[in-house]
């Protein structure tokens, strides 16, 4: 790899570190090509990506980044998993690591915050952006639904009382 290619890789990695919602660093020593392709496919399906890069280039790309503290995790055979959604990449990597012991999570970053293994697992357990939006929408819609039910309840109660009186009279 010549200098121009290295500079291009450093620039790409810098953009990944700057723009991703979450970056998870893991060791992948012993993973077969098929297992790595499976991880990539799962990550793509969740809206994220997987990147293997030389640790030295990744450390250069981390210089000046808010998440520069994750440079300590970049030793050995590391893989970077990242996504714009702050939960997606962490969720896929944690699930995959449970299924395949060859992938071991080292840590990661979420915005400016560095995450240890427990932090990555905690992020993976959080609801995704879409799930949070659905919860908010249901909370907003619930009072209106309750009001509509309360307004309609007296009329239905009167109707049921009238029908029971009519049945007794008949």
From TrEMBL:
GO biological process, alphabetically ordered: translation
Signal peptide: none
Keyword Ribosomal protein: yes
InterPro entries given in the database record: Ribosomal_uL10, Ribosomal_uL10-like_sf, Ribosomal_uL10_bac, Ribosomal_uL10_bac_type, Ribosomal_uL10_CS_bac
GO MF annotation, one: large ribosomal subunit rRNA binding
A GO cellular component entry from the record: large ribosomal subunit
CDD domains for the chain: Ribosomal_L10
Family: Belongs to the universal ribosomal protein uL10 family.
Physiological role: Forms part of the ribosomal stalk, playing a central role in the interaction of the ribosome with GTP-bound translation factors.
Subunit annotation: Part of the ribosomal stalk of the 50S ribosomal subunit. The N-terminus interacts with L11 and the large rRNA to form the base of the stalk. The C-terminus forms an elongated spine to which L12 dimers bind in a sequential fashion forming a multimeric L10(L12)X complex.
Protein name: Large ribosomal subunit protein uL10
Phylogenetic placement of the source organism: Bacteria, Pseudomonadati, Pseudomonadota, Alphaproteobacteria, Rhodobacterales
């Amino acid at each position: 790899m010549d200098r121009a290619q290295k500079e291009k890789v450093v620039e790409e990695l810098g953009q990944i570190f700057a723009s991703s919602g979450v970056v998870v660093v893991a060791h992948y020593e012993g993973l077969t090509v098929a297992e790595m392709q499976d991880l990539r496919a799962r990550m793509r399906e969740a809206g994220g990506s997987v990147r293997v890069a030389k640790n030295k280039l990744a450390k250069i790309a981390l210089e000046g980044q808010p998440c520069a503290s994750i440079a300590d995790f970049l030793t050995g055979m590391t893989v970077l998993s990242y996504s714009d959604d702050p939960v997606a990449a962490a969720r896929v990597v944690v699930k995959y690591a449970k299924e395949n012991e060859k992938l071991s999570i080292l840590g990661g970053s979420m915005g400016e915050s560095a995450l240890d293994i427990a932090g990555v697992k905690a992020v993976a357990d959080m609801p995704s952006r879409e799930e949070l939006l659905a919860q908010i929408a249901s909370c907003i819609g619930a009072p209106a639904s309750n009001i509509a039910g309360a307004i309609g309840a007296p009329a239905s109660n009167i109707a049921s009382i009238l029908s029971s009186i009519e049945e007794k009279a008949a």
